[in-house]
Each structure stands twice: as C-alpha cells, then as structure tokens.
Amino acid sequence: MDAADSVKNLRQTVADLHRELTRYGLVIWTAGNVSARVPGEDLMVIKPSGVSYDDLSADTMVVTDLHGNLVEGDLAPSSDTAAHAYVYRHMPEVGGVVHTHSPYATAWAARGEPIPCVLTMIADEFGGEVPVGPFALIGDDSIGRGIVDTLRDSRSPAVLMRSHGPFTVGRDARAAVKAAVMVEDVARTVHYAHQLGTPDAIDAAAVDRLYERYQNVYGQ
Ligand SMILES: [Zn+2]
C-alpha cells in the first residue's frame, strides 16, 4: 500500500475512532482528539481544531508532518498537534495517540495523584499504577516532553498530565483509544473504592504475572 492509500485509510479510521470517544462519554463539545502515525512516513492524521464531533469525517481530518506542520487538509489541526507530534518523534513504537478530559481520569490529574494498581484490570492494561506527568502549558514541546518522559519509565500506555487530563498511546490509534476508555473506567472504579476506604495494592510479582499473561496470552 503506498503512502496515499495509507493516508486515505487512516483518515477514515481516525474519523471513526473519534466516535468511540463520544460513545464512552470521554469528551464534551469539541475537546479531545485522536491521531495516527502514517506507517513509514513522517506524517500523522489528526482531528481538526474546534469541529463538532458530529461533523468529523474522513474528509475533515488533517494530515501534518511530525512537527505539526499542515501537509494536507482544509482545516487547522487540533491545538494538541504539537504534543502528538512530539510523542511520534520520540517514541517510534507508538502508532496512535489520544487525548481527552474524561472526568474521572481528569479528577485524578487535578489532584496530581497516580491511579494505584489495586485491580487485576489495572495490572493487565497498565502494568502498574497509571502515572502522573508534569504540569505543562500548551504552546511549545512541554506537554509532549512531559508525556514521553513519564511513559519512558512506565509500562502504562496512559499518563495523567497534572491539572490537565489523560494522554494515551498505542501501537495504533485503536489501541490508544482503548487505553483512553480503560483509564477512565479504572479511574472511576478506584474513585468509588476510595469513598469507602483505602483499596489494597496488588503486590509487584502478581502485577508482573498479570501483565505478562494479558499482554502475551489473552485474546484471539
Ligand atoms: Zn487537553
């Protein structure tokens, strides 16, 4: 498949994946965004800035280079494009990035508190606690650098950027969307658990076993 076909397919894939953000209640208004790296190219497909979720389509998606410069599209790219681009430049294994302000995960980010690994599902999906990244302002590479620096020391595909919200990564855009859905789900469940006491952390050896099994054996 040549680059033009890859871009065409990814425009549709990325547009469709934005529907998962609304389906799972992860976004309001025009907040949130999904991007995908174009395999073998220094390009990514990302949501345009400020467009209603109902109006997103393959045609409205935007293509930029990995410095966030517009390559193809009629609309301006998402205001988070620089953060996505930084992640792709520094994490070659990442093929998809998602950002939301999903309410429970963002509540943990507001407190600057990692989500502790107190459920088998957290061990499965995140390989430990969901870490907190630094406070960073939009406008330069600060957010991207904070994401990369935090995820480099973790098995988690999700980082809670302090006082902001979750960013997730995956081998492709669908995996990054799955991580965004899962981080909101565990953020909510552990929040509930905290209302009635302090949940027990799973010991590190069990976390390793769970993570290993789920990542390498589980599924079809
Ligand atoms: Zn944001």
Summarize, please.
The chain has 220 residues and is an alpha+beta fold. The protein is built from 7 helices and 8 strands; from the N terminus they run αββββαβααβαββαα. α1 packs parallel to α6 (173-195), α4 (120-126) runs antiparallel to α6 and α4 (120-126) packs across α7 (204-216).
Could you explain the architecture of this structure?
It is an enzyme of class 5 (isomerase). It holds the Pfam family Aldolase_II. Keywords: Metal-binding, Zinc. It comes from Streptomyces badius. The chain has 220 residues and is an alpha+beta fold. It has one domain: L-fuculose-1-phosphate Aldolase (3-Layer(aba) Sandwich). Helices cover 43% and strands 15% of the residues. It has 7 helices and 8 strands, in the order H-E-E-E-E-H-E-H-H-E-H-E-E-H-H. The protein has helices at 3-23, 81-90, 103-111, 120-126, 142-152, 173-195, 204-216; strands at residues 33-37, 43-46, 62-65, 70-72, 96-99, 132-133, 158-161, 165-170. It has an 8-stranded mixed sheet with strand order 4-3-2-1-5-8-7-6. Helix 1 (3-23) packs parallel to helix 6 (173-195), helix 2 (81-90) packs across helix 5 (142-152) and helix 4 packs across helix 7. It is globular and about 50 Å long. Bound molecules: zinc ion. Residues 99, 101, 164-165 line the site of zinc ion.
Fold topology:
Elements: H1 3-23, E1 33-37, E2 43-46, E3 62-65, E4 70-72, H2 81-90, E5 96-99, H3 103-111, H4 120-126, E6 132-133, H5 142-152, E7 158-161, E8 165-170, H6 173-195, H7 204-216
Parallel strand pairs: 6-7
Antiparallel strand pairs: 1-2, 1-5, 2-3, 3-4, 5-8, 7-8
The structure holds zinc ion.
